[in-house]
Amino acid sequence: xxxxxxxxxxxxxxxxxxxxxxxxxxxxxxxxxxxxxxxxxxxxxxxxxxxxxxxxxxxxxxxxxxxxxxxxxxxxxxxxxxxxxxxxxxxxxxxxxxxxxxxxxxxxxxxxxxxxxxxxxxxxxxxxxxxxxxxxxxxxxxxxxxxxxxxxxxxxxxxxxxxxxxxxxxxxxxxxxxxxxxxxxxxxxxxxxxxxxxxxxxxxxxxxxxxxxxxxxxxxxxxxxxxxxxxxxxxxxxxxxxxxxxxxxxxxxxxxxxxxxxxxxxxxxxxxxxxxxxxxxxxxxxxxxxxxxxxxxxxxxxxxxxxxxxxxxxxxxxxxxxxxxxxxxxxxxxxxxxxxxxxxxxxxxxxxxxxxxxxxxxxxxxxxxxxxxxxxxxxxxxxxxxxxxxxxxxxxxxxxxxxxxxxxxxxxxxxxxxxxxxxxxxxxxxxxxxxxxxxxxxxx
Length: 444
Hints:
Layout: H1 8-14, H2 18-21, E1 50-53, E2 58-59, H3 63-78, E3 81-83, H4 102-106, E4 112-120, E5 126-134, E6 139-148, H5 153-169, E7 178-185, E8 192-199, E9 206-207, E10 214-220, E11 226-233, E12 236-243, E13 249-251, E14 258-264, E15 270-277, E16 280-287, E17 293-295, E18 303-308, E19 314-319, E20 326-331, E21 338-339, E22 346-352, E23 359-365, E24 368-374, E25 382-383, E26 390-395, E27 401-406, E28 414-419, E29 425-427, E30 433-439
Parallel strand pairs: 1-3, 1-4, 2-4
Antiparallel strand pairs: 4-5, 5-6, 7-8, 7-30, 8-9, 10-11, 11-12, 12-13, 14-15, 15-16, 16-17, 18-19, 19-20, 20-21, 22-23, 23-24, 24-25, 26-27, 27-28, 28-29
């Protein structure tokens, strides 16, 4: 099992961002950064990606080039930035403490410039200083310093990406995160499904289960340290809790019937799940401290896929109580059930945005599958993707990007991402086959 990297230094040094922003502004210690003239409107339906230059950071060994490459890749995949080819850079070596030659960057139409320096302290720690510049206004917009152990260099690159993304878009970043998913291998008739985890950019993939049992629907807790998932054995299905940091695993008791589709409450104290008995499934909630279960639905229908609102007061789920799978809301105690989806087709796998403004879902219409979003009251429905099979959306922690899995006839499923405008749809940077992704919160 993959062990997490020690992050004490991030908490004590890297995360102390606010203390260093002002003092690193060019030529005016203590002054607030100049307001960007290149702010990006992330909710725009059409958008020209911002040309950004990310030259290799100067300094220690290969870290500078590697960090710049990760930052460039993160920004590129967001769809809001267009990293420029380093072969065209005029100014070849930049000192992080010296103002860039802005005419050289204007000449290649760069609108933003990110440069940095990597050093190794006498105690072996890696220190990364970086600057974000508005090329045309010739102003520094951001300056930060991160310190950690060398094995954490990728996380420092993700932190830099998050800081740049937030400064230029006004939205929180989502790059310093991980994704847990079901890694699939082998022939379709004997498919091996293992629980796996990777960084959001596909790096550092590793397995969390051996593949001796089939696993499905992994879901993160708000702490990002625990996941819950379903394991299917010959004896039946069980719901497990797994602590990623310690490797400790436990079951959520015994149920008579099939149990599936677990999901944590926002405070991590409860797990909502579905229990199937005799062809009928209902939604239950288990309190993790007492292990007492409460039944929330009692309809002679299939009620499944519960997902809490961010404040924990409501649950969205799908049910065929109206004749076909549709989306319904209820209060967290099971009262006040009401239908919210109203379009044609079959709605499944709802999941509430971390921001609370949208519910994502899978929709099947006319032999095609879609990933879509709608407001919690059912308005403003938008279909973001269309293919032979798109299913299982999960939100990035900033509530502006979704990951899902896509399958073509005779082809193993792959992980994909889409932004909430539907403008940026692309394969996730993981070369293997995967399904049922779940995006972590931002790491600590």
